[in-house]
Fold these 4 entries.
Entry 1:
Amino acid sequence: MWQEPIGYANVNDGDIFQDIHPKRDLVASQSQKALKPIFFHKDLANHFVRPDWVNILGLRSSTENEVYTSFVRNKDLLNELDSQTQAVLRRPEFYTPFDDLTMYKSAVQLGNADMHPILGGATPTDFRFFENRTEGQTPAAKLAVARLVDVLHRLKKRVLIQPGDLIGSANNDCLHNKDVGTIRDEKALKERWLMKTVNVRSLQDHHAHFIEGRPRIVHG
C-alpha cells in the first residue's frame, strides 16, 4: 500500500510532518492545536485535496490523563443508517466551512467552500463530514446530520495513544475525533505531543493543486 506524504500551504506553513500540540491562540479551535475535544470528522473534510490516509505517532503524553482518539468505520455507519437517511446524505445539500487550521493566518485565500453531499466523494461510501461544522441546508438534511451524529457516538471505539504508538487510518473509510475524559495533570495535557502525516495514493492525481516547484505542497 503506497503512500505519499503531502503538506498544505495554509497548514503549518506547508509542513509535511505536523505537530499535534496545543497552541495558545488555537486552544479553543477544532484543530490539531486544540487543548480540549475535537468533534468527529475526516481530515480536510471539504478541502479540494483530501488525504487518503492519516498517520499519527505518539511522542509525549501522561497516563494520568484520559485523552482518546475515537474511530468509527464507514461500513459500520452504513449498517446503522436507514436507506432514506443515506439517500439524503448523498444529496449536495450540506455545507462545511474550511477547517480552522486551513483558515488560520491563511497564506492562500480560499473564499467559501462548496456545497457538497456528505455520503459519496472519494468513494461511494466516503463520509465528508465534520461534526458541529457540517450543516444541512434543508430540513431533511438537518435531520440526516442529527441521525449521523447519534450513530457516530453510539459506535465509537476509543484508542489511547501512548509514546511510541503509531496509528494509521484510512481517511476515506472512517471518521475520528478527540475525546477528553478525566484530566489529573493539566500541565501534561498542555504538553501532549503527537506527530501526524497526511498521505495520498499518488502525487500525480493532485499535481494540478501543488505549488510550482514544491510537488508535495498543496496551494491552499
Entry 2:
Amino acid sequence: DYKAGKLDPRPGWRVVRESPGTAVIDAERRLGIILGPKAMRLAIEKARTVGVGVVTVFNSGHFGAIGHYAMEAVGHDMVGVCFTGAGLSVVPTFASKPLLGTNPIALAAPARHEAPMLFDAATSAIAGNKIRLAIRVGSPLLPGWVTDRDGNPIMEEKPVFDRDEYHQAPLGGTREQGSHKGYGFALMAEVLSTLLSGALPTMLAAGSGSKNHFAAYNIEAFTDVEQFKDTMDEMLKTLRTATPLPGQERVLYPGLSEHEEIAIRRANGIPLHKEVIQWFAEVTSELGIAPLATLN
C-alpha cells in the first residue's frame, strides 16, 4: 500500500471534532497499527476525566488485532471496547454479493487473580486470515464458513486453493443457523466505527480505508473497582471450573487460552510457518535491513 501510494508513511493525524469525552480523527491515510495505540490512549485519558472516552478514526490503513487496543484499557482499571468497519468480503444474509467487511468487535475487562476477559472476534463465520491459513496448511473450509461467487452458502466441507474463489459468510453461515445475527453485529460495528466518524462505509465508497471505534469505560465512574474485579474473578472462575462435557478437557472463557499462550511464547518463542519466514526474508532483503533471526 505504501508503494501504491494508498498509505502515507509520514507520522500525523488530524482531529476533526472533539469534546471532553469524544474525538473524531482523520488518519490521513496513515497505517492503523501506528495510530491505534495513540487513539486508545486518548480514549483512556478522556475516560479518566469524564468516565467514558470514545475516539473514532477514519481514512486509515489496517489496525491489526483490535483486541490489543481493548486490552490497553485493562491496565488502567477500565473496560476497553473496539469495533472496526472496513472492506468488502462478507455477504449479508440473503444477498448475492459482499457488502460488508469482517467488522470485528472486541471487549476486554480486568479481574484480580483470573486472566483478564478478552473477546476479539470477526462478525463473519471465519476471519479472512483463517482462510489464508487454511490454504497454507492444507485444511478444508467447514460448512457455512463461506459462500460461492454468487453468495450461496457452501454447506459441505470444501478444500480451498484460491482465496478469491469464495466470499465470506456472516457469523452463523445461514439464516437458519443465525447468520442474521452475525450480519447485525457487522452492521452495528459499521455504524459505531464508520458512521460515527462521519465517513462512508466501503459499500458506498470503495477504497475509503479502515474505520475504527475505540472506547474506554472507567470502572470507578460506575462502581467500586475492587468490587468489580472480585466479581469478575468469581464469574470467570465459575466458568473456568465448570464441569466439562465428556471428552472435553475443560471450559474456557474468552481470553484465557490466549493469556496462557502468551506465557508459553515468551518462554519458547513464536512458531512461524516456513512461508512466513520466507516472506520476512524477502521483505528484509528488499528494504536492506538485517534478516529475521530464527531458531530451528
Entry 3:
Amino acid sequence: MKTKNRHRILFLLVTVAVLFLSVSVYLVYFQLFQADDLAAHNLNRRNYIDETVVDRGNILDRNGAVLAESVPSETGYTRLLTYPVDLAHIVGYNSVTYGKSGIEQSYNDYLLNIQDRDVVGRLRQVVTDDSQGNHVTLSIDHRLQLYANQLLAPYLGSIVVLDASTGEVLAMSSNPSFDSVSLDQNWSWIIEDQTAPLLNRATQGLYIPGSIMKIISAVAIEESGIDQQYVDQGQETVTGYTFINYNNLAYGEVDLTSALVHSVNTYFANKSLLVGADKMAEVAKRFMIGEVIPFDLRTARSSSAYSSGMSEVDLAAAAFGQGTTQVTPLNMALASGAIANGGTMMKPQLVKEIRSPQNSLIRRVTPEVLSQVTSRPIADELKADLQTVVEANPAAGVWGAVVGGKTGTAESQDGLVHAWFTGFIPLEDRDVSLAVVLENQTLMGGDAASPIAAALFQWILNNYDGN
C-alpha cells in the first residue's frame, strides 16, 4: 500500500513538474520571440493605458503641416485629425474598441515614446518622465494628396505618386475612404459596405494589370536578345488559341517601340514564347511581382502568373497582362519609377524622419535600393520608348515636360474594365512616377486614367522640386 502511494505521489510530482516546465517554456518563448509583435498588435489594449498618460506625438506631412495631434481632455488626451477622410488610409485610426491602423499602428511605439523596449530604455523613460510622444514626419505632400483625392472622387480605385529617385511616397489615394474620427459610431455600416472603404487599394488592392504589364515584358524581350521585328496580321494563334489586338486591328511590320505605342497584344504573345517562361518569370520577380514589398503600411503581395510548367497559351496571355497576374498600384508605380530611374527600383518610404518632443533627431529614413530591375542602357532605351508612347497618345502629356508611360485595360465584370495608367515625369534632377487604376469603367485606360495622370503630372511640374 505504501509503495502504491509513493508511486502516486511521484507521478503527481512529475506531472506537476512537467506542466510547470511546459508553462515556463511557453512564457519564455513569448517573452523572447513574440513580445514585440504582441505588444505592437493593433488590438493590444495595454497600449491604450500608455496613451492616458502620454501626449501622443504629432504626425506631419513633408512640409510640416500637422495631420494628427493630441490635445488634453478630461480623460487624458484626445486625438485630433486634420484630414480624417482624405488621409484615413495613411494616418489611420486609433480606436480603443477597434485598435489601430496606418501610421498610427506601424509607428505606435514612436508616437508613444515607448520604442525602447529593453530594460535600459524603460529605466530611462522612468527617470526622465517621458510623458510626451515623438513626432513622425511623412513623405506625403498633403496638398498633392488632397488634389489626388479630388481627381479620384468620382471613381472606385487608387492613385500612387512617388519620387522615383528616393522611393518617397508623395500621395497615396484610395477611394472609397472612411471617416476615421467617427469610426466607432459607424463601424457596423463601414464593415458591411460592399465597396470596402477600409481597404487601402493602393497597397492591398490586387488588379489584373492589362497592357501596363508590357513594360515588364519589354525588359525581358530586350534582355533576351531575340529578334524584335514582327509582322502583325492582327492575330496570333498559340496551340489552337487565337489572340487578337484591340478592335481587331493589324499593324503590319512592328518593332518593340511601335508595339508599345500601339499596344500590340499579338507582338507580346509571340515574343514571350521566344523569350520563354523562365526568363519572363525572372524579370517579373525583379519588378517585385510575386515578392513581398517592404513598406510602412500593410501591403499585399502581387501574384505572378509565370511558372516553369505553364502552358504556352498562359505564357502568351501573361505577356500582355491578362491571365492570373495581379498587381497593386504601389507595385506598378514602383515599376515605372524603376525604368525612369535607370533600372533601379527604390524601396518605397512613407516616413521621412522622427523627432523627439524637444526636436532632436531620433531617426532619419535614407533611400534604399529595393531591386535592380535591369541595366541602365536598357532602362534608358525603354524610358525613351515610353515617352514615345505618350507623345503618340498624348492624353497623359503636359506642356513643359516629356512624360512617359503606358495605359492598360483589364477585363473586370459585366463587360466593364479596370482602367490603368502608369508612367513618369522627368524633372530637373529626378523623376516622379505614378500609377492610376479606376475600377469597373466603360472607358479604356487611355480615355479614363490618362487624363487624371496628366492633371497630376501638371501639379508635380508646377509644385514639386524634391523638397
Entry 4:
Amino acid sequence: MFTGLVEEIGHVSAVKTGTEAIQISIRATRILQDLTIGDSIAVNGACLTVTEKMRSGFTADVMPETIKSTALKTLKSGDPVNLERAMRADGRFGGHFVTGHVDGVGRIVRSYPKGNARYLIIKVPAELDAWLVEKGSVALDGTSLTVFAIQDARLTVALIPHTSDQSVLGQKKMGDSVNVECDVLQKYVMNAALKTTKTAQHLTYGKLLEHGFISH
C-alpha cells in the first residue's frame, strides 16, 4: 500500500529486456536508507519488488502483466521516475490509498497554466470513466491528485508548484503517457453497486415467496 506522495525522483540507469519480463535498474538516494531486497516500491505508480540493492540504486523485475498495463515498457536509460516506498504502519497518511496496481495508461492532451498551478487534461481508457469522480482521488504516475473534472474519459488535474517540482509530472508534456490508478474505494463502491443491481434484476415474486421474505 502506498500514499501517492512521491519520496524521490530517481533515474533509470539500465533496462534489460528478456523474453517476457523487463529488468529495470534505477539510481536513487533517499529511498535506499532502509530499503531491502523483497521490499515493494512504487515506480511511476506501479508496485515492483526490489530484487537487488546497490550502493547507488536498486533493480526490479517488471512482469508481463505490468508491462501490458503500464507505461513502464517505454522507459529508457536516463528517464526520471517517481519513487515511493510502501507505507509504514506507523507513518503519517497524507495522500490517499494507492495500491500500485495501475488500471491503464492515459495520455496528456492539454497542458496550461492557471494562477500558480499547471493544469493537465488527460485522456484515459473509456473503461476507467466510471471509476473517476469529481473531487475524488486519482494517482498519476504514482502521484496523488484530486480530479477537478471528468468528462468523456478526459480528466483534469492541477499541479501545485510543489507537486511539479517533486514529481515527474512537472516534466511531462503534451502527448506523454502516464500511469493511471483510480481510487480503490471508488472501485469497491462501483463493484458493490453493480452486484446489487444484478441481484435486484434476478429477484422475482416467486423467489421472495420461496425464501420467506414475503407471504401470501
